[in-house]
Amino acid sequence: MKRITLPDYTPSKSNPTTGEDVTPPAKKAFNRRSFLRNSVVAGAAVTAGSAILGNVPSVLAQETHGHLTRGDAAILRWLAAAEIIESDLWLQYQELAGTQDDEVSTIASRQIPGYPASPTGGSSPYTEALSQLDEDMAQYIHDNTEDELTHETFINAFLVSKGVDPVSLDQFRTLPSSLT
Questions:
Q1: Whole-angstrom Cα distance, residue 125 to residue 134?
Q2: Predicted pLDDT at 58
Q3: pTM for the whole thing?
Q4: Both 105 and 160 in a single domain?
Q5: At 14, which helix (H) or strand (E)?
Q6: Residue 14 phi/psi, 5° resolution?
Q7: Cα dist. 145→25, 91, 100, 101, 139 in Å?
Q8: How many structural domains does the chain have?
Q9: Which 8-state DSSP code applies to residue 171?
């Protein structure tokens, strides 16, 4: 085994002007090299280990034959609920100041019973004030809202594909749209 000689350890010195620690360049270079070398060795060990083990099932990866474990299903259901809440918040923001085209309202009306299929028109004073901060904010709100709605749809569709009931929070939707 090759022996490595380490440079003398020089404790960090404090910069008298800023009070920050100053690490000698040799120590920084050694630490970086050491990290890279150890990472390569660890990667090689993992690769070799997986080649030796072959198809032996891991304790961490349970064999489920395409079905979700109860724990996985619970996590995904929790994430779906979080996405539903997040999409609801973004929809409220969209109604006030998002780009007012049919895209988001059409998607939302398919997912949410009673949601208007056409845009609300927004709030001109609110949209104008927001555009003073960032002129692209209306499009940003629109795109984020669409993303959240698709996240909700995707996770629920995945749950259904695995034989798990989708998440619905429709029973809690008791307020009408903010601008209808």
A1: 14
A2: 40
A3: 0.61
A4: yes
A5: strand 13-14
A6: -95, 135
A7: 48, 6, 12, 12, 10
A8: 2
A9: G
Same-domain status, 155 and 105: yes
Tell me which residue of 98, 96, 95 sits closest to 116, measured CA to CA.
95
Task: Give the domain range for residue 22.
Answer: 13-53
CB 60 within 8 A of CB 103: no
Could you report the per-residue pLDDT of 107-143, keeping only the tens digit for each?
Answer: 999 999 888 899 989 999 999 999 999 999 999 999 9
Tokens of 16: 């008298």
Residues in contact with 118: Cβ distance below 8 Å, sequence separation at least 6, in sequence order: 102, 105
Nearest to 71 by CA among 58, 81, 62: 62
| Residues 59-63, mean pLDDT to the nearest whole number | 43
In a domain, 61, yes or no: no
Residue with tokens 């304790």: 59
116 in the same domain as 40: no
Dump pLDDT digits (tens) for 136-169: 999 999 999 999 999 999 999 999 999 999 999 9
Residues 104, 167 share a domain: yes
Residue 3 resides in a domain = no
**Sign of the Cα pseudo-torsion (37, 41, 42, 43, in order):** positive
DSSP character for 8?
P
